[in-house]
Structure formats: structure tokens, C-alpha cells
Structures
1.
Amino acid sequence: MKTHVRVAVIGGGVVGASVLYHLTKAGWKDVLLIERAELTSGSTWHAAGGMHTLNGDPNVAKLQQYTIQLYSEIEKISGQSCGLHVTGGAMLAGTRERMDWLKMAQARGRYLGMELELLGAAEMKKLCPLMDEKCFVGGLYDPIEGHVDPFGVTHAYAKAAQIGGAEIVRQTRVIDTRQRSDGGWDVVTEKGTVHAEHVVNAGGLWAREVGRMVGLELPVLAMEHQYLITEDIPELAGQKEQLMCIDFEGEIYMRQERGGMLLGTYERSCVPWSPRVTPWDFGQDLLPNDLERIAPSLEVGFQHFPRLAEAGIRKIVNGPFTFAPDGNPLVGPIRGLRNYWVACGVMAGFSQGGGVGLALANWMVEGDPGADIWGMDVARYGEWATRAYTNAKVRENYSRRFRIRFPNEELPAARPLRTSPIYERLQAENAVFGDYCGLEHALWFAPQGTEPSEQITFHRSNAHAHVAAECRAVREGVGLIEITNYGKFEVTGAGAIDWLSRVMANRVPKVGRLSLSPMLNERGRLIGDFTLGRVSEERVFLIGTYAAESYYLRWFERTQRPSGVQVRPCAMEYVGLSIAGPKSRALLQGLVDTDLSNEAFPFMSFRAIDVGMVPAFVGRVSFTGDLGYEIWVTGEYQRALYDLLVQAGKPFGLRLVGGRALNAMRLEKSFGTWAREFRPIYGPYEAGLGRFVDLGKPEFIGRAAAIREKEQGGERRLIALSVQATDADAIGDEPIWHSGKVVGWVTSGGYGHSVGQSLALGYVSNAVAAETDGFAVDIIGERRAATRLVAPPFDPSGARMRS
Ligand SMILES: Cc1cc2nc3c(=O)[nH]c(=O)nc-3n(C[C@H](O)[C@H](O)[C@H](O)COP(=O)(O)OP(=O)(O)OC[C@H]3O[C@@H](n4cnc5c(N)ncnc54)[C@H](O)[C@@H]3O)c2cc1C
């Protein structure tokens, strides 16, 4: 074993082997993989090897496509067969709602270049002869699904990596990882210590234990998972291999295994494995079978596929594999640990392993994952993702693996976990709550005396009329919205302004003012969008997206911040309330001594102001696009502020307003938001944020790339559409059509109550971005005509928020 390497990858499962291969492919040859036992000795060896392209996140779906296409490449380089069987796949729907879901999946696949075909039950039966078509409405056919041999794939990656210069040591456990003063790592193994510049934790079933070596508690949990293999079924003999198949109602997946069928299930009464510590002596072991637990799924499966009920069971496999709370991988560098990377929580190693390896290798070698991997970035979790939270969410996610997640559905596990001081007050007002990063926030308010719950649906729900009333209250009078769930940072110290000016693309505002600013990476891509509020010469508040707090902090660490500049996350310290609407000024003026007239406190002002007895920071800005104020106070004052505003608001007809109405109102103003319109695959000019990029500043990160984008025009444009929808609106990820061709995708959609239109925001290619007519958007499988809006449909001149 070498004693000094550029990268030490810990773990020789399919993920570690893929990372190793991709590092060599990207040109880093001096890389070492250290495996405790033999390659595949974690979850990998007993996997069913199924692979598929569909994923709820289109960016993850792209990486899944990449993974599947990679197998022939690694077979060719390594000479090792991956046991590739591209049988095609069938997703079978037993209900109309599931069929709607499949229609939406098919539509989404269109802009990803997937050839997915919707078929009725009778046509599906021709492809899946074992099914009883009476049990199904239809299904979706994907020609590039199938299965691989887990051992073959892992060894193909490993051999291809070795051919590329990598070293692999087996039967060597890493027992510690210690950061060195030179920024590298001492990787301590049973057989000696290796000095590595970078460490990759690809420990799979032991990723938590490997993380704990550096004080990291990764939000991953292993679940027991069972599949069975039937005896040979005579009807399969001599036939084309059966399709990979998912039966959503049975909650089972299936594929042919030699002469029989392999059948696995994500059972509702699922069981975590080793919830606290994974034993080091667990090797190529299996867990005891528990057919009772999966009996309900098998029963449905046997009804749906009667021939299977008659075939005997040849083998049962029960093995553990790991999940993150949302079921997507955890990939990327860890904040606070230099040159420490993770690639774990990969629950579908044979669909995702290639994409994970590619993204991580790009990130390490080029400084950027090269794709939009926000959905798998380890930074999407914060300290709130504790072990017990992870346990509850992983169990929920596992047991719902094949269930529909409706766009307006809020899941109940691990709630309530975090609440703001006014939570009980909002509860008493019949708030329907949503969960955002473990924090409860009001989505809308049900009338008193009714059940505060929302029917889950792809269509407009029972919330529609109430959200309409909340929007009306803001547009005609005044609404009160809790905005605690925004991310906040306080930047202070000598040099704070120079540092911020280098990190943000826009100017740092003058004292007493707000400014909006995109944050760009060196490639000029959008990695954040903030409101900056300057309190004093050397104190600035940044307000952005809470879900990206760790992501932003990790970026700030990379920016060579002078030692005198402190960046302090303070999202939960400063909780907030916003009032918005034409009567908001009169309401607030009655509570403060400061002159709030437009001349004295114009749009984008920001100042410390006492509201009644409550010391607060008040910004004259509102995401509703109306006259409005954001009021930030430390937690202990929030109840007093709330009570004061509610009391003083009575004569003005103040109404409580939730997040759903806020979203509808920002769509009426065509305002984008992080993780939807603003993501690291878009540039600021593409996203319509060019006016917030100050190219007059001498230097800021991403400036050169932004100049290029401005000169060359980028590839696409964010546009706003008015859609001829009837009882359902766009939700995001639907294809946008123009003249019969897919030209882009929707990033968000909803109903604009104040303008009486169904609205969508989305990106289209430059070629059609100036057109107004001829657009269409797929809504639940139906193509709806759409018109590009040349200006925001509500208050196009922006007069209301400025006056
Ligand atoms: C029953 C079952 C069926 C499945 N079916 C499918 C399927 O059909 N399709 C699909 O895509 N996925 C399937 N999976 C999931 C799949 O197995 C995982 O996604 C994949 O194996 C994860 O790979 P990994 O490399 O992250 O982890 P692992 O396979 O757990 O590998 C981690 C490796 O790291 C090594 N290691 C850990 N700690 C150390 C240390 N300190 N020092 C040295 N080495 C260390 C371990 O020995 C191990 O070899 C299934 C899983 C199970 C259990």
C-alpha cells in the first residue's frame, strides 16, 4: 500500500468503485481505494441489480441515464462483464391517479430525451404476459431499464480504475481519519497510515461510522429489504426475457432471474437495521427472513400476477442498505472539514452510482460537480437532521417508496420538530402547516370550525378558495405573513464590505438600504440569491433561502474571507413577520415613531426601528410585489410583535396569510426563487437577474463568466406564461412546447388569484424566448395552450411596491 496519495477512497462498494474510476478518468491517477473486506462487502453484493431512469428530480434522472449508459464503457475498458440485461421496464398503474402520475412522468421525460410510452392495460399485457390486465389501468414503458450483475459492475469499475492508474487494497479496514496541519489527512488503517490529500467517505453501510471518525453524524439509516426468487416458471422458458416491472399498488418490483422471477417489496411495516451502530463484523451476511412482514404486498402481487402464486419460492434474500431522509444520495464536500468528501446514502447504486461518481470526481478535480446536483448535495441537511429525525423520515420514505407524492402533500413523520414562537397562535387560527427543513410554517388558514387539512390532489384543492381570499386581503387591504423560514446571515467586521463585494454580483447597499444580489461561482452560474440589508458601516444582513444555509456557508468558507470578517448564520435567531398590501403603511405607521412616508422610508429602505416596544429591523420590501414590510426580531419578541400587529390590524381588516398565497403572489409578479428558477445550471442573464449584476465593479467571483454570458446571450431564458388551464395548474418540471416541439421546462406554476390566470415560470431556448404565442404546457398529460407574458401580470410597472 502506498504511503502518500492524492485521494483515499474508503469503501469498495459500487459507489466507491465508481468514484475511483471517475477520478482516474478525470486525470487524477494517484488514487487509492481501501476496502475493509472484499469489494462489494456491504450492501452491494446482494442487491437485485435493477436499474431505471425515472426520478422525481429531473437532474438526478439525468445522472441515472448517464449511469445506465456507462456500463458498456466500463465493460469495454475493463473486459469485465456487467451482466447487462436491458429488458425495458414497465411501470404499472392500478388507479386513475397513478395513471395521471405516469402521464406527468412521461411528460417530464420528454425534455430529458427519454422515450417513454404510455400504454393501456391490454397493450401492457402483451409486454408483461404474467400480469392480469384486469388489475391495471395501464402503464408506462421505458425501453432502457433492466438489470445488471452487482459483482460484475463493481469489478468493472474497479478494473477500469486500476487500468487508469488507481490502486486498490482489500482486507484493510480504515480505523481513523485525522486532519493534518497541511490540510491533508492521515488515513489510519489496520495495516499502516496513508497520507492522503483528500478523503472520500464511500463507506455505504458504515458511512455513519466512518463519518464519526471526524465527528460527523451523517443522516443515513440502513433498512432491511427483502426480495424472493421463485422456482422456474415453465411459461418463461424459451421466451424473450420479461420486462423489469413495478406494480405500484402491490408496492413490488419484479424482474426475471434465470428461469424464475425476482420479486422485491418496499413494505409499509418496514424495519431499520442497526439504527445506532453498524457492526464491523457484518460481512457478506444476510438477515433472517421475515415473510410475514411482506405478506400483504405479496398477496396483492400474487393477485396481480397469478402465475407467481403458483410458483414455489426458491430463495429469499433479506439485506440492509442505506437511505437519507429524502431517499436521495448524500454527495459532496463537508463544510468545516477541508478536503473531506462523501458519497453515501445511495439507495439505488445501479441506477445512480455512475452519476454520483461522475459528479463527485468533477467536484474534486474541477471544483464543480458539472451538473445540477442540488437534490443530492449533502449540504441540503442541517443540524436538525438528527439521528432520530433521520430514523423517522427514512422509515416514512421507505414505506412510501411506491406511493404517489402529490404536489400539495405534506408528510407527517418527525413533526412537529421545530416551531417558531407564534406556532401555537397560528395553530389557534386554524393554520394548515407545512414542513420546511423540519420547521413548521403556515401554508394557509382554514376557516374556524373546519378541519385544518388539505385534500391531496393533482388538481386545485379545497385550499384554493381560501388562498384566493388571502391573496385578495393583501391586494386590497393588508395581510400578515410569517417569514421565519427565510435563511439569514449576519456579516460583520473590518473588511466585511470588501469581502461581500467580491462574493456578491451586485453592489453592497449603502447604510440604511437593501439590495438584491445574485451570488455566482467562477463559472458565472447562480449559486445563491440574496437580499442584503446594511445596518451600519461594517454590519450587513443577508437574507436568502433557509434550505441552502449549509450550502452557502460551505461556499463562504471557500472564498478566502479575511480573518476579521465574521459570517454568522442566524436564521432561527431572527424570526420574522411581514405585512403587505396597500394598507400596510398606515398599519405600521401607527406603531412606530419613524416617518414611513415614501419620501422618508422609500422602497428598499432598511433600518432598526422600534415597533411598539419591540426592537426590530424593518425592511421596506415584500415578496408579494405589493407595498409591504419585512420585520425581523429576535425570537423572544415575536409573540409581542404578532399580538401588536394583529390588534392594530383589526381596523384595517388584517388577515393572516400563508405560504401558498405568498407563492401565488410572487408568480403574479414573475419573481423567481432559489431551487426553482435560480439553480447552479443557470446564469444570471438567463434567469432575468442581469440588472442585479454590477459589471461596473472591478472584481467579483464569476465576473468574467457573467460578461461572457451577457455578450453571448446564454443558452436559454426564464419566461413567464399564462396557461389555459382549467382545474389544475403547472407544478414544475412539465415540458414547455412551442410549435409542436419541446423547447424547455417549467420551474414553478400555480394560480394567480389576483389576476385570474394560471401561471407558470420556466426556461426556454433562446430561439423561441421572444415569441409570445404558440406555447403550450403539459398539465396532467394534457397539452394546454400558453402565452408568454411580456410583463408581470400584476402591477407590471412595479408602482405599488414603490409608491
Ligand atoms: C436486498 C437488496 C436489494 C437491492 N436491490 C437494488 C436494486 O435492484 N437496484 C439498485 O440500484 N440498488 C439495489 N440495492 C441497493 C444497493 O445495494 C446500494 O445502493 C449499493 O450497494 C450502495 O453501495 P455503496 O458502495 O454505497 O455501499 P456498500 O455496498 O455498503 O459498500 C461500502 C463498502 O465500504 C466498505 N467499508 C466501510 N467502512 C470501511 C472502512 N472503515 N474501511 C474500509 N472499508 C470500509 C465496506 O466493506 C463496503 O464494501 C439493494 C440493496 C439490498 C440490500
Note: The chain has a mean pLDDT of 96.
2.
Amino acid sequence: MRAVVAHASDRLSWDEVPDVRPGAGEVLLRVRAAGLNRADLLQAAGHYPPPPGASEILGMEASGVIAEIGDSVAGWTVGQEVCALLAGGGYAEYVAVPAPQLMPIPDGVDVVTAAGLPEVACTVWSNIVMTAGLQPGQTVLFHGGGSGIGTHGIQVARALGAKVAVTAGSEDKLNAARELGAEITINYREDDFVERIREETGGADVILDIIGAKYLDRNVDALAPDGRIVVIGMQGGTTAELNLGKLLVKRAGVIATALRGRPVDGPAGKGVIVAEVVKNVWPMIADGRVRPVVGAVLPIEEATEAHRLLSSGEVTGKVLLRVE
Ligand SMILES: NC(=O)c1ccc[n+]([C@@H]2O[C@H](COP(=O)([O-])OP(=O)(O)OC[C@H]3O[C@@H](n4cnc5c(N)ncnc54)[C@H](OP(=O)(O)O)[C@@H]3O)[C@@H](O)[C@H]2O)c1
């Protein structure tokens, strides 16, 4: 089979690699499209090795057709179109997927577009709802409102009846965020997000943070009493000082999570998250409250250019790779 191979100097090539086979509890997916994530950029640059046992091939989400079913798998059929959350291996003609990480394609979504849903949907739902407990009427702040995560998160939070605030670094991305339902839009290059959030809401109940160290103290300042900061990205570094006094007064919490390294099974596993997403988010997509936001689709042979695009910040929403 062919797959994207990462070389030094950020070059990616579409080359022959050894075939993959589905193990027990897995299905073999013939890939039609793969979604890009920031983690793929880090892995390609040699900074983010896949978890033990995962494929060395890039790609944390994909869509396609079930080509083969391994032992001990029930409920899926050969030929069925699906999408899947992956620990790796999506940038390829075929990928082996643990059955609990398979998802049907939401009604009304084409198979290529569906490749960009599993990672954002599972990350957003597991963090803002399952971890932070966002409630209707509360305020959620998404840093990076024009990102894959942000463009999906805005819509899910609105569908839940929450008030949505976002930060972004350009007017294009802030406009896109407004169109998707964000009510408070903050250009982080011009405005202080702490001041704006405090002025307009008194504080955010939930902050989904992708910056990490650089924003930790200011996120605590922007938080409402009993609020939760969930850190899922560390684009602004990993190590910062935390003023416990400020947290204590607000009865607030700081949590950091990663989806990729979770086990497949068990109460904190990917299977539980995938099932909750299919139950709660897929109907939001089917009835139009949440739409996939795709900024670019490139042939998989152009993976190098796709990585450059995501890294440049030029794209609003997801970047996808199409496999012919
Ligand atoms: N822990 C997990 O399980 C998990 C899962 C998925 C994703 N993530 C993380 O979530 C983040 C978004 O992922 P993605 O794939 O959606 O990436 P993406 O589309 O490339 O988005 C990255 C975003 O970061 C924003 N950004 C950069 N500096 C910023 C700042 N100072 N303040 C606010 N926003 C800033 C950029 O906004 P501008 O272009 O407007 O500057 C851009 O929209 C990444 O950090 C990724 O690693 C974590």
C-alpha cells in the first residue's frame, strides 16, 4: 500500500510502505480522506512520537470504506462508509482501526468532509462537556476561534445553549467565528482578552485553551467563580507559574488532557468518547445546527503543501487530504 512518509526538512512523500492488517477487534479502512491536526505537524518535525503500539504513519482521523473486518468485531459491515478517530496511520491507503473508534458518517455529510470530524468532535465534546461540564446559559471561551477545534466548538457550544467567546489573530477568522455563532470575538493581537471577557460576561465558566503556559495566569484572571480551564494545546509553552490563591478564591480548576494517548477501552477511553459524540453531536450535524468547516482539500500527494498551509495559519477550519 502507499502512505505519506515524513523526511527530514519537513518534506512528505507518498510512497510504498508495508501493508497493514486488521488485528482482533479492528477493521481495515480503505481511506478516502484524512484530516490534518497540529499534532501531525509536530510529529512530522520529530517532536511528538505516536503512543506505544500506534502506527508510525501520520494521521489521527480518516474516513473511507470498510474493506475487511477482523475477529471479534460486531455491528459493522464490509463496504460501509465510516469515519474514525485514530492514534495514527490515517495518511495512507489503508488503516487498521479499533472498532470502538469507528463512527458512522453523520447524515448529510459526504465521505471526504467526514474525515475532518472525528478529532474536533471528540476533543470538543470530551473537554467542554464530559470534563468541564458546560451548561446552557454559561459562557465558554475558545482560544483560536478560527482553528479546526474552534470552528467546531463554537457551533456545538451554541447548540448546547452556551454563550461563546473566541480569540483569533485576524479579522477573517473573527468574522468566520461570528458567522458560526460566536458572540464575543477578540483579536488577541489588538485587545486584552481578560478585560473583554470580564467586561462582557463577568468571566468565562469554561475556557478551552490551546496556548498553555503563556496564557495560564491570564486564563485564571478571565475565569468566573467555579470555572474550569481545560488546556489541550501548548503552543505557548509548557511551564508557567500558577497562583493557587487566585484559583482558590474562585473555587476554580485547571485540567490538561490529550485524546491521542487515551486507551481504547475503559471509563476514560476513546470508545466512551466516540459513543457520546455519535449520540450527542452527530444529531446536531444531521439537523444543521453544526456544520463541518473545511478550509482546504488537497490530494494526498500534496501533503507537504497541506502541512505548510495548516502551519501558516492561512486556513479557517480543517485541512483535508483526499486519497484517490
Ligand atoms: N489535547 C488534545 O487532545 C488535542 C486534540 C486536538 C487538538 N489539540 C490542540 O488544539 C489546538 C488547535 O488544533 P487544530 O488542529 O484545530 O489547529 P489549527 O487549526 O492549526 O489551529 C491553531 C490555532 O492556534 C491559534 N493561535 C495561535 N496563537 C494564538 C494566540 N496567541 N491566541 C489565540 N489563538 C492562537 C491560531 O489562530 P490565528 O491563526 O488566528 O492566530 C490557529 O487558529 C492545537 O494546539 C492542537 O495541538 C489538542
Note: The chain has a mean pLDDT of 97.
